């Protein structure tokens, strides 16, 4: 990758490209001028200055190319998942025709069956299937994708595990999210973000100021009875203009996008990442974000005519082979409360009935000792069990119905247990707040970000969980309209809002939010509305995205400060060197005691070039970010990059001067 | 002793900042003040006569246009007056018409609150010309500056607003409520100390040597007050505040210095008060104080130490003995920190470092307190730049009191820095490169460079003080410095109003722990640091060939012919 970047560094010398970066363009012009002057003054100094000016430009180009290369490599790794498969496109007369996946267009409908790759990004319009999305998320557990709901979006390159679905392709070839992201990184479509434009203006302004300061130095020098050569003036100019930040500015931006991509998030623009740094209100859905999506059994409530132990036994039996976290938590609860030991379903001769999206129940079929009939133990949602017992000629008792209502109203999930026609009781599944959430919210608070929990729960339950999780605010019984209204309200109060969402009814809110992260598992509408897509569908990732955004802005500010602070030392190196012949007394300004005027000028130029290379890793990695208040971050960074920026070049230039003296180049 | 005086003077400014700042807030927010019974009827009368609709607010463009129209009319009228003074009344000495280039220079000079005087008043200007130039513009240009500063503060304080206030209303209020009453009180104080106030003819006296001397008389005290209060600096006498009739005692010296800084210092409090962030106002005050105390100490120390070649102790050349080295250096720092330009000693005769201080004060952008109003809107540009550069470092889009600083704001802020640098550097360079420029200097070598640089710096910074030694009444300097003054004033005000308009239109972002802090010591140091860095990086090469090298040369014992 480095070799490729070195090659690109030369390609980027094209003035038409360099023009986009006025600071480095001026350096290139300076390099050209000194090179042409080489025809007249064939001195070693002239040659060295010309060489180092070209090096300065090349280093800048190299940094940009390197950042681009890393982004491309990351994107390519994602793109690799899209094997060029043959898709089964539905024709208008209802038949099928084989078409290469790369030729699928928006609106095409394709059939995908078990063990086939989904040929492109799209929406399920028919059927339901479990899909393995490990290719993009790295998570091996299959997910359900079905037509008509909030889980209808599928991504190209993922594998259907069961059933048959019809997918409508939603992107033109080369227009998928990943394709877009790659183009963003590659630069062809990279648009400068608002902050980048403002910074560019500042840098261009400073460049003109320094141009004035150096150009007018010629008449001042002539008046003073000395003279300065064009080459030396060019060298001074290049040292003064903010080349450090000018060289690394685009690399910093691309690296920010790279980092977002490393987190498996596709950003639609650099602007979105920047906006993430500005966010001060975070809307988080409760389920799956703040609490574990899977709930834990905390209580067993038997029906009025059922013994508690009987319920516990049935609940345990139905969950023995159930490997979901909910199932395991039931087995644990039965053991804790009733001392029921785990049993092996095989020994009992039982047969596990897994949960399906259609039945929404799971359980076991057990042989009975005295009859050929089987005991059918089931657990599931109240309405599913209701249907089950009625089908077996039973009834759904009122006390259970009441218990279900109580649990649901307290924010829990009731799971009804039944055996054949008889309802035994209810398992109380409860939300459990994820570990470490409290600390994360604390961290956000220190960054000045307020978190608001969004939940469909009633206010009472919502408050309970909010307190437990340590969020700042809560929006209970939230409808999509409420969500949208909340965002508008926060924005009217001067806040910048970030949120995650997956459903179609989240789309307006995602569009309204300043930063909207759509889950990859969400609907196409949600993805279109947001400005980022999280391939892992992990809502807490918003926190990382915010940190990346902040880091991006901080890196720019830090290097700008560093770059400007550097000039102090360069003046002390070059000014006395320029006028030592006219005013020997100016030696007093040569605080670094640089050996000779030639060495002083050359050392400053070399330092100016090398500092770019030295800072490439920092530009790509970003400055260290800690969630402290703005005042403390400012103090720390001012000390590090402001004060540091003044001190470091004094040492660096002196060191280069010593080396030049040793090797005899000055 | 000398530094105790500096500290005492600074303390006087510091404790009076809040009362005047609060008062200005009340005046411009239309709150009740004790002067209302007197000033309000006058205001109504002026509004009715001039057809001002006090209720109608202006967009930044309209505000700028009104300011420009007012200034241009003043400029043209003054020019015409000077050109025609030989046919106009109040010309007892039958002085001829002022030449075109000098008339241009003088008209611009007074319109822009610079008060650069390329002429000798007594022998060039008729009484009418003097009165128009001094009396009218001293009030008008200062009131204009204060009005613009208030418009800028409104831009920061308001949100989602399309207007910045009404220029005409602000202009009248600044005059009736602030400049007129304060200068009246100040004049009485000066009068009590022996400053003259009469319409007598010159007094003829026989001196100790037996020669006859004509001592000019006139309404000095009233002119003196507004000269300082409005940071104009144009003296009644050519000797300015070195003249015993303008500045007779150490007390008047202290009082005049106080008047120079008072409004500028007070406006920092007005900024804090009107934006609801008093601590921010104090932070700006602290940044200005930091620079002021550092520069003043340097200057005072240099003058007390004097020239080592003479071994005479403090440098007293070109100074009034009743003030001495320290008070003169302090006055020089005050008058250049604020863009006043009144002088009580000849800056040209200062030691290199002593002369460096006034020059550097102006080069920092006239924001170390700065002129009446001009200082505040000047430092506003640096606040924008400081917030932008350092604001990124806290990981958010830079914001100033909840207003995002965007490309347009940075562009306008950089424009003002560029215009100032252009006129100082290109003007000085042109002077050094041409015979027209060089023929006016009175010293060769670095000191000559300082003289030329000081002229363009003083003009572009709208200061108006001179490094003396330079013969400024030439076509080259009259035209060139006139342009520098013109652009230095209006190409500062218009972009600054543009930024204010842009900020006023923005929504205020809620404050949080992640918000860039613009109060407290850290911000004050940052702001001062940005001002120094921008100034130093821009002017270091020029300064190094002027006062800096002169200093080292002096240390080494060399003199220039």
How would you describe this protein?
With 666 residues, chain A is of the alpha+beta class. Chain A contains 23 helices and 22 strands. The longest helix of chain A has 39 residues, at 541-579. Chain A is elongated. Chain B is mainly α. In chain B, strands 1-2 form a two-stranded antiparallel sheet. In chain B, helix 13 (374-391) packs across helix 18. Chains A and B meet through helix 7, helix 8, helix 11, helix 21 and helix 23 of A and helix 13, helix 14, helix 16 and helix 18 of B.
Largest sheet of chain B: 2 strands, antiparallel
Structural class of the helices, strands and pairings of chain B? mainly alpha
Strand elements of chain A, count: 22
Distance between the first and last residues' Cα of chain B: 36 Å
Structural category of chain A is alpha+beta
Mean pLDDT of chain A: 85
Give the strand order, joined by hyphens, for the main sheet of chain A. Answer: 10-22-21-20-11-18-19
Q: In percent, how much strand structure appears in the residues of chain B?
A: under 5%
What count of helical segments of chain B does DSSP give? 18
**Rg of Cα set of chain B:** 23 Å
Task: Give the largest interface.
Answer: A-B, 74 and 68 residues
Unreliably modeled segments of chain A:
none
Helix content of chain B: 55-70%
Shape of chain A: elongated
Compute the number of strand runs of chain B.
4
- Strand percent estimate of chain A: 15-25%
How is the topology of this model organized?
The complex is a heterodimer of chains A (about 675) and B (about 550).
Chain A: H1 2-11, H2 15-18, H3 22-37, H4 44-79, E1 86-90, E2 96-100, E3 109-113, E4 122-126, E5 128-132, H5 134-137, E6 143-146, E7 153-154, E8 159-160, E9 164-169, H6 177-186, H7 194-215, H8 217-223, H9 230-240, H10 243-262, E10 265-267, H11 270-278, E11 281-285, E12 296-302, H12 308-319, H13 325-338, E13 351-353, E14 361-367, E15 374-380, H14 382-391, H15 398-409, E16 413-419, E17 422-430, H16 437-446, E18 450-454, H17 459-469, E19 473-475, H18 480-492, E20 497-501, H19 507-512, E21 515-519, H20 524-529, E22 532-534, H21 541-579, H22 597-621, H23 630-663
Parallel strand pairs in A: 11-18, 11-20, 18-19, 20-21, 21-22
Antiparallel strand pairs in A: 1-2, 1-3, 3-9, 4-7, 4-9, 5-6, 5-8, 10-22, 12-17, 13-14, 14-15, 15-16, 16-17
Chain B: H1 2-28, H2 36-50, H3 60-83, H4 100-111, H5 121-124, H6 127-157, H7 167-192, E1 203-206, E2 212-215, H8 220-229, H9 250-274, H10 278-305, H11 324-337, H12 352-363, H13 374-391, E3 399-400, E4 403-404, H14 407-433, H15 435-438, H16 445-460, H17 475-505, H18 520-555
Antiparallel strand pairs in B: 1-2, 3-4
Helix pairs in contact in B: 1-9, 1-10, 2-7, 3-4, 3-6, 3-17, 4-6, 4-17, 6-7, 6-8, 6-9, 6-13, 6-17, 7-8, 8-9, 9-10, 9-11, 10-11, 10-12, 10-18, 11-12, 12-16, 12-18, 13-14, 13-18, 14-16, 14-17, 16-17, 16-18
